[in-house]
C-alpha cells in the first residue's frame, strides 16, 4: 500500500519470512526509501509507528494500523498526526510460504507416525 504525503511516499509492505516459521507475516512502514518501523508475528492488530522530522524541523507522528487475521490482504490505515490519510488493503509477498511449511510439517508427522518399514513398503524399496 502506497500513498503520497507532502512530497513524500509512505508505504506499508508485508512479507512472510522464516523468522516466524512462515506462519506470521512481517510488516514494514517506509517513508521514501527509509524504513521507519517493522513489526510482525502472530498479532491480530500490529501497529507500526514513527516520529518524522521534516525539513522545517516539525515533528510528525506517523502510524499504520493493520488488521491481520491470517495475513492475507490485511486492512491498513495510515495516519499522520491522528488523521487518516489512506486506508486500503496491503499486498503481502510470498503468500505460498505458510502453506508449504504446513505441508512439510504434516508430511514429517505422517512419516514419523508410519515409520521407515511402512514407507519402504509403499515406495517398493
What does this structure look like?
The structure is a single chain. With 125 residues, the protein is an alpha+beta fold. Helices cover 21% and strands 46% of the residues. It folds into two domains: 2-93, Beta Barrel (Lipocalin), CATH 2.40.128; 95-124. The longest helix has 18 residues, at 97-114. It is rod-shaped. The mean pLDDT is 91.
Topology:
Layout: E1 2-5, E2 8-16, E3 25-31, E4 34-40, E5 47-53, E6 59-67, E7 75-80, E8 83-89, E9 92-93, H1 97-114, H2 116-123
Parallel strand pairs: 2-9
Antiparallel strand pairs: 1-2, 2-3, 3-4, 5-6, 6-7, 7-8
Number of strands: 9
Structural class: alpha+beta
Compute the number of structural domains: 2
Low-pLDDT windows of residues = none
Could you please say which CATH topology of the largest domain applies here?
Lipocalin
| Mean pLDDT rating | 91
Rg measurement, Å: 21 Å
Strand content: over 45%
Q: So what's the CATH class of the largest domain? A: Mainly Beta
SSE run? EEEEEEEEEHH
Helix content: 10-25%
Keywords: Membrane, Transmembrane, Transmembrane helix
Transmembrane segments: 95-114
